[in-house]
Amino acid sequence: MFVFGNFVGMLAALLGWVLQALQLVLLVNALLSWFQPRPSHPILDVLENISDFVCRPVRRMFPTAMGGIDFAPLIVLLIIQFVGMGFLVPTLHDLARTMR
Predict the structure, then answer these.
(1) What pLDDT, on a 0 to 100 scale, did the predictor assign at position 32?
(2) Average confidence (pLDDT) over 71-96
(3) Fewer CB near the terminus (10 Å): N or C of the chain?
(4) Of residues 36 and 42, more confidently modeled
(5) How far apart are CA 84 and CA 68, in angstroms?
(6) pLDDT, tens digit, for every residue of 38-75?
């Protein structure tokens, strides 16, 4: 059973890293949208594609653009913080601890 506990612990750590990286991507993309750097840079295209992929469901459910400001990245950041980092990752860590 300890092998499954170690696996769940590793999944929790990996999920935590992915969620933190996603938060960083959303934050950087939101900040860069204020400055409009070179629009054809490949790294900026990757950041934009990841951000759009994550924010698209929120944009479909709610009208997030108000006064020229898109609040979808903020809503997604809050969802990641509360659900992912506040509930899911700690729950997986606790589950892994009880299985060891």
Answers:
(1) 85
(2) 92
(3) N
(4) 42
(5) 29
(6) 667 888 889 999 999 999 999 999 887 788 788 899 99
Residue 37 belongs to domain spanning: 2-99
Count the domains in the chain.
1
Q: Angle formed by the axes of helices 2-35 and 72-79, to 10°? A: 160
Look at residues 70, 79, 85 and name the one whose alpha carbon lies nearest to residue 20.
85
Closest CA to 19 of 90, 95, 99: 90
